[in-house]
Design brief:
The protein is mostly beta strands and 279 residues long. The protein has two domains: 62 residues, Peptidoglycan hydrolase domains (Immunoglobulin-like), CATH 2.60.40; 168 residues, Glucose Permease (Domain IIA). The chain is built from two helices and 20 strands. The strands form four sheets. Strands 9, 12, 13, 14, 15, 16, 17, 18, 19 and 20 form a ten-stranded antiparallel sheet that branches.
Length: 279
């Protein structure tokens, strides 16, 4: 029988301690619901990276031990039932199920009425900004995406959740397509993962905004900032400061709004982060 000598024993002990000290990486929690992320196995793991599209857009692909998986962003208006991926150059149909999900309603009072019903001269600006944001969040940058877990961009309480059906000053408006974090003005807002800054702008509704492209149509947006501290084209690492939180744009007070997009669709950011502890 082989005996571990003291020096080797010390080495093994140190190795075990270091392994225990490693942070546990959060995992994406797929949810094939409107506003969620479907995880669909499309090919064996020993094949070269395949190709897949949903609603005509390329989707993020990851190789796992048992195969290649497509991570499909499902828009909030996706009807429950059978949806179809198009796989490979021949666009082979691959059906997958989407189950129903309902979201609660949230009523808010906005002090500036122009942020609820903009003046006619502001509508053209708003439309141009909407088209620009759709274009940026729909880009497909063909790079490997080694991780799909995300870090919460700011340390604070999660307030308004994704998918809330919003009513401003008694008037129904578009649902909430992000996750709000309650933080005071001037709090650091950090990159939730590695990526490239794809847009820095000051928008009518979103205020000061930063988009980060994580690759393969996987995009983060942080907005209502007091100040942006990055530039378009800048490479950022997970945890790098993107800016400082604030209340610019349409906001009831200081907070961070964080959106996550897959294949152009806003999806629930809570699926990508470590769930809060239950009490």
């Amino acid at each position: 029988m082989c005996e571990i000598v003291p020096s080797a024993r010390h080495f093994v002990s140190a190795l075990l301690v270091s392994l225990v000290a490693l942070p546990i990486q959060a995992e994406l929690r797929p949810a094939s619901v409107p506003g969620g992320v479907a995880s669909v196995r499309i090919a064996p793991a020993n094949q070269a990276r395949p190709e897949a599209r949903f609603a005509g857009k390329q989707v993020l692909l990851r190789r796992q031990s048992d195969g290649w998986y497509a991570l499909v962003g499902l828009p909030l208006d996706t009807p429950p039932g059978e949806q179809v991926l198009e796989v490979g150059p021949d666009r082979r149909p691959l059906p997958f199920p989407v189950t129903p999900r309902s979201y609660p309603e949230q009523r808010l009072t906005i002090k500036n009425p122009k942020m609820v019903t903009p003046d006619p001269e502001d509508l053209a600006r708003i439309e141009l900004e909407r088209e620009l944001q759709i274009a940026v969040r729909s880009r497909y940058r063909d790079v490997d995406v080694p991780r799909v877990d995300l870090d919460l961009p700011a340390g604070g309480r999660l307030s308004s959740r994704f998918g809330l059906r919003r009513v401003f000053n008694g008037e129904p408006r578009a649902p909430h397509t992000g996750l709000d974090v309650a933080v005071p003005t001037g709090s650091p807002v950090r990159a939730p993962a590695d990526g490239v800054v794809s847009l820095v702008e000051d928008f009518y509704f979103n205020g000061k905004t930063v988009f980060v492209d994580h690759g393969q149509g996987f995009v983060s947006m942080v907005c209502h900032l007091d100040k942006a501290q990055v530039e378009v084209g800048q490479t950022v690492r997970r945890g790098a400061v993107l800016g400082l939180s604030g209340s610019s744009g349409r906001a009831t007070g200081p907070h961070l709004h964080w959106s996550v997009y897959l294949n152009g669709a806003p999806v629930d950011p809570a699926l990508f982060i470590e769930p809060p502890p239950t009490r």
